[in-house]
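During the first year of the project, the team set up a workflow for recording each protein of interest as an amino acid sequence followed immediately by a discrete structure-token representation. This format lets reviewers and collaborators read both layers of information side by side without switching files. As required by the reporting guidelines, we include two representative entries from the current panel. The first entry is reproduced here exactly as it appears in our internal archive.
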Amino acid sequence: MQFDILTLFPTMLEGPLTASILGKAIDKGLLTVNLHNLRDWAEGRHLVTDDTPYGGGDGMVMKVDPVARALSELKAEHPQSRVLLMSPQGKTFQQPDAERLSRESGLIFVCGRYEGFDERIRSLVDEEISLGDFVLTGGELAAAVVLDATARLVPGVLGSSGSAQTDSFSDGLLEYPQYTRPAEFNGMRVPEVLASGNHQAIATWRRHEQLRRTLQRRPELLETAPLTIQDRLYLEKLRSESENPSSENEDQ
């Protein structure tokens, strides 16, 4: 899968995008990540990419023409790539977006800077993406997050084919608790069911823990998660226990 990042600070991303799993995937040819300096498409002696806003105001605004020239060239090389603008006004990025974007042949990220960007830049992109209701100094870190979440879903990138399927949010719920050796640490023991060798019992325990943890920490996710009848019955049991703490919890 092809990733192109258009930024004024490409060195910000050289480390995160060439290490660990992403770095190995790049070495294997599963991913291609290109960092492009927007100044390469700027004009004039000083390669200016920003200017003062019409109507006055604080800060500088990213100019539309360097971005337009850059995207025109990048799209000519990869016409099927989808163009994403990192923007606090965009749609909040979630796991289904990562899954959707991982099926694209390529992505081009436009990273904003300064006080904002010329409104006409919006007409040059396919969609705007935000990480949440907070402000970053630029779009580089947001682009890296979206790229990481997307790239790990590309077939072959993760060492285990089932890893992505059991992550938090992959099925609309939080992930179940994980344990490894030692079996006991500071009086805290690994649940016996996980060492039982009974795969059905382990699967049931993990599903129940997903439901329990999601109910406790992110109950709003249960409104849209694909739940079975058994899931809903277990959630009713958990809610009943929370209302009546003296009731016995079979999973503890």
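The second entry, processed by the same pipeline in the following quarter, appears below.
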Amino acid sequence: MSGCIWKYSQYLDDEDIVFAQKRFVTYKLAGEYYGINQKPLIRMAWASGAVYKIGKKVLISRKIFEEYLRENQRIVNELIDEDDEKLLKAFESRVKEGESYEY
């Protein structure tokens, strides 16, 4: 295995390994893997700057999106545990305040 994934191999299953090999994922695949509903996932992907559009195809860069998730870990945990609408309002207020999520 390349990189550092081998250090955590005892915690990974086949789904994790297949997902780790992908550089770009669709909204549907990302939502299923991260356990986040589609609407908040789309907003977070756009806020992080991880969205790439090729014609009608929309892909999320895993590397950029996961950096964003690590930076906003507290908010993401609330998303998974609590109400999606509450979290969306928190993200919208951060964006309105002018916080940049560009890399």
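For the second entry, the following points were noted during internal review. The radius of gyration is 14 Å. Residues 54 and 94 are 28 Å apart (CA to CA). Both points are flagged for discussion at the upcoming steering committee meeting.
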